Amino acid sequence: MNTHASLLRPDVLPALPQSVYRARRQQLLDQLPEGALMILPAANLATRSRDTEYPFRQSSDFWYLTGYQEPEALLVLCKGRREGEQLLFNQPKDKLMETWTGIRLGQEAAISQLGVDQAFVLSEADQRVPLLLAEASEVWLPLEDEALYHRYLGWRQGVRRLQKRAARLPDRITDLSTLLGELRLIKQPEEIELLREAARISAEAHCRAMRNCRPGMYEYQLQAEIEHEFMLQGGCPPAYGSIVGAGDNACVLHYVDNRDALQDGDLVLIDAGAEFQGYAGDITRIFPVNGRFSLQQKQLYQLVLQANELAISLVRPGTTLDAIHQAVVRCLVEGLVALDLLQGEVQQLIDSETYKTFFMHGTSHWLGLDVHDAGLYRQQGQARALQPGMVFTIEPGLYIAPDQMDVDSLWRGIGIRIEDDVLVTEEGCEVLTQGVPKSVEGIETLMAGGDATD
Length: 454
What we know:
One of its GO terms (molecular function) is manganese ion binding. Its cofactor is Mn(2+). By secondary structure, the chain is of the alpha+beta class. The chain has 2 domains: 5-184, Creatine Amidinohydrolase, Chain A, domain 1 (3-Layer(aba) Sandwich); 186-447, Creatinase/methionine aminopeptidase superfamily (Creatine Amidinohydrolase, Alpha-Beta Complex). It is built from 13 helices and 20 strands. A 6-stranded mixed sheet has the order 6-5-4-1-7-8, sandwiched between helices. Strand 7 (138-141), helix 6 (146-163) and strand 8 (173-175) form a beta-alpha-beta unit. Helix 5 packs across helix 6 (146-163), helix 8 packs across helix 9 (219-232) and helix 10 (295-314) runs antiparallel to helix 11. The protein is elongated, with a radius of gyration of 25 Å. It starts with 17 loop residues before the first helix and ends in a 7-residue tail after the last helix.
């Protein structure tokens, strides 16, 4: 029978081959005990206002396991089930609804295109899942999903109503998020290629912003340059809300208003990344609005750049993010003392955390399908050792608040962060974001019309 595959939008089909997603589901099943039942919901549409919705973005866990790009679905894995271990409940084909909101995959095509064993209409879940639950040894759910947990309780009650005293329900429920996060943490070769492309597109967009920056522009105009490049390079949305902060606004870590004018003599910080087929780029660069760093801007910038390059040089299997962060802190504190922005003995300033006035955030976070990706940072109470295939950011920064009255006014209102994305390799690391310059010379050359090289 015709599965209508030719009528499917390209973004409905998995970006990667179905074999990749089926292998991921099998890898998850292999780690579940016999008889376990796993239930994972897709994302739902979110109302923006009245009868309009935000653009749909699939749950990252659901995306990781299925590649499926429609809302309102359930993935159910049943370890050891003879009729098939991998089940999908999704929306039915509906000509009227598809006229309004686009082609749906439906059940028949879900089996052929997604590689699940069985697919059912979503409305059947309340009848079928309790039957699966009655045969399960234990249940795995993302426990932070309150709606799903309450639905699960309803399914349990349904089993009791149907089977009464004969009901045999699992008495163990386990959070799925940790196990799935650990699977997502080590990137496979096909994921690394997508992350490289997300980083490449992000880097080109940052270069475009540098080339086009002029005094008198507005922050939102630089945001438009960045996000226009994302779309030109493959219809990529931002992986997160783009931050474009000029002058004092660069000292606000998650500034997103992006509405002020760019003043001659100020720096402008851009923290923005493209999402390519679900995978995030995450780059921060800061550069002078007029194309030339002042003395104080350059001194502070060089210090942050030194910390950034030191951190990257330390990335290799076996080290930890904690160790890298501590090295960054020491580098920044020594530099701040040399610039007389901090006074005292370096170790004492580190121990007392006095430096947090100027550097108050961490150096790194995991990167993948989420910009702050899944995966544990500590194991058995200890910082985990880095392994090949891990991808994370390196992003030291210094922020001299405009109301920091105990420092010379020449420093006030300067906020600097330099962020790169790195992949741990067998020998060390690969910097995925090297396509955008970060040296003073490289930035000034690019802004003067030269090549985008360091």
